[in-house]
Amino acid sequence: MFSQPGLLGEAVTLDEVFQPGLLAWDLALLVEVNFALEDQRFRAHLVMLMAEESIYHVSRAIDAMLHSL
User: What superkingdom heads the lineage (predicted)?
Assistant: First the structure.
């Protein structure tokens, strides 16, 4: 079943999201993707923040994929 995208965290401060006193990241990766359907009124903006441990897993998966080519 399809449902339209929604806006999350509209009334949340950055301190509430990131909790700087609890997070012990040395690295983080911010991924931003903007896309639109040609000749349509649909547009989307995706922002994703990956913590250090997630970056390691994504990097290993990309390395494995590239190695298999």
Answer: Bacteria
Residue pair 45/34 in contact by the 8 Å Cβ criterion: yes
The 10s digit of each residue's pLDDT in 14-63 is 777 777 777 777 888 888 899 888 888 888 888 888 888 888 899 999 99
Which of 5, 55, 62 is CA-nearest to residue 25? 55
Q: Is 10 helix (H, G, I), strand (E, B) or coil?
A: coil
pTM given for the model: 0.52
Chain centroid, CA 19 distance in Å: 17
Per the listing, tokens 């994929």 go with 65
SS3 call for 56? helix
Residue 8: helix, strand or coil by DSSP?
Answer: coil
| Angle subtended at Cα 67 by Cα 66 and Cα 69, rounded to the nearest 5 degrees | 65
